[in-house]
Amino acid sequence: MRITLQSNIDSLSEFYLQTLVLLYRPCEVFGKNDTSTSELYVRAEEKNGKVTAYVRIVDNGKDCESVSSQGEYENYPDGINIAKTVVGRAFCDCAEKVYGFRSPFGIITGIRPAKLALSYLERGFSRDEIHGIFGDAYMMSPSKANVLTDIASRERSLLHSLDRKTFSLYVSIPFCPTRCSYCSFVSYSTERLLSMIPDYLVKLFADIQRIGELSKELGLELYSVYVGGGTPSILTKDQITLLIECINSSFDMSRCREFTFEAGRPDTVTYEKLTALRDGGVGRISLNTQTANNEVLKVVGRKHTFEDYLEKLEIAKSVGFDSINTDLIAGLPTESFESFTESLDKVIAAGVDNITVHSLTLKKSSELKTLGEFGLLSDGQRVMRMLDHASVKLRGEGYLPYYIYRQKNTVGNLENTGYAKEGKECLYNILMMEEFHTVFSAGAGAVTKLVSPDRGKIERLFEQKYPYEYLAKDAKGFDADTIRRFYAEHF
């Protein structure tokens, strides 16, 4: 889409307009030589302290325009950019005419919408006041405003006594047995990937030990551990045992509140692996089926059936974990609304106590995106219906929302939401998503996030993205000096 901006307001930029476009065209690519026939034209002016915006969108076979201006009633709290709000209103009014639906999050483009709700709660705003701000300033739907406020309240309750000298640990196992059609993560053949694992673990264990030494030097207390992927259960039983032993020996685990291992795909899970995890102190696992429809599983390239998932789930229950999570994806190709609701019913009936409902995200080089198999505009409304049903159904079954996030290139620009029975929440998910405290990360593609005590300063340190880069001789490695500097300045 070609974008033209005419404005005398410094805070408005073409980048901001791009984020608005992505609300309705999730996979849009922007460039200087764009020859697209679709167009966004914005003219915004600030005069005598008031902002007026004119927006025109030509796309989807339509040509529509809208005007918005700052009214006398607008007395929003600090932090709201009036110019962006006025332009965003005009854009959403116009986009609704062009695309046939209104973005349920209004003009909020960030990936952490509950963090905004939490900030208002911490500033003393009531639920009604927050809902009013979300609806008026951000054009958010009442249902999304309500769920964000519920999640923020639950997060604050769960972590109200969190010590700022705590931290969490993320360990990346970036390997999968096969590539799902909606994912771009695995970019090499399985054989080559698997051949890297032994060397990868040697480097990974060394980094975990370095983090352990540095955390003790800084006087930090480990709060939670999350081993994610990829598919961490691609490791053998012996490799899993070595990994868990490395973590346990590198940190004081006596006050660690949660130890999660993302077991992932049922076709990689065995009784021996699960027993090794439980014996090593892992209390929470994720076992994912994504859908209960076997035909859909085939379409997306999953090498297991729903029956396989149920079998491995029963084994996991018999081993005795404190909490078991299952992920479902709303919007998978060929899955109807009826099929999704049936999948949800079956997973609830299976007896897991934590369910995360994801909106389908089209990764940059995923098969679905590169083959162009999806009509994003129509599917956004279909997925929205799935998510609305899931919210009502899960709440009715005693699963309450406890964290939420959004990703780029998500169908309908919708959200991923974690639901859990009381006491079965994944604390790491909240800590990481809402940036409550520092997360040290080890492994390819991992991101260490340094957070100051007042959460006002955040610094990110990125590991090399791919395993072969992580293992390269010239890889930059664990940056202990930057971490020491950050803690010296902020703690």
User: How many β-strand runs?
Assistant: 15
Helix/strand/pairing class, anyone? Answer: alpha/beta
> What fraction of residues sit in β-strands?
15-25%
Give average pLDDT, whole number: 89
Flag low-confidence runs: 369-377
Strand adjacency order, main sheet: 11-12-10-9-8-7-6-5-13
Radius of gyration: 23 Å
Distance between the termini: 46 Å
Share of residues in helices: 40-55%
Any idea what the shape is? globular
> What kind of sheet is the major sheet?
9 strands, mixed
Helix count, per DSSP? 16
Describe the structure.
This protein has 16 helices and 15 strands. The protein is globular and about 65 Å long. By secondary structure, the protein is α/β, with parallel strands linked by helices. The strands form three sheets. It has a nine-stranded mixed beta sheet, with helices on both faces. The chain has helices at residues 14-21, 82-99, 113-122, 127-136, 142-158, 190-217, 237-250, 271-279, 294-299, 306-319, 337-350, 367-371, 376-396, 427-434, 467-470, 480-490; strands at 2-7, 39-47, 50-59, 62-69, 166-173, 221-229, 258-264, 284-287, 323-330, 354-359, 400-406, 415-420, 438-442, 447-451, 458-462. The two termini are 46 Å apart.
Short description:
The protein is of the alpha/beta class and 491 residues long. Helix content is 40%, strand content 21%. The longest helix is centred in the middle third of the chain and has 28 residues, at 190-217.
Keywords for this entry:
16 helices; globular; four-stranded mixed beta sheet; 491 residues; 40% helix
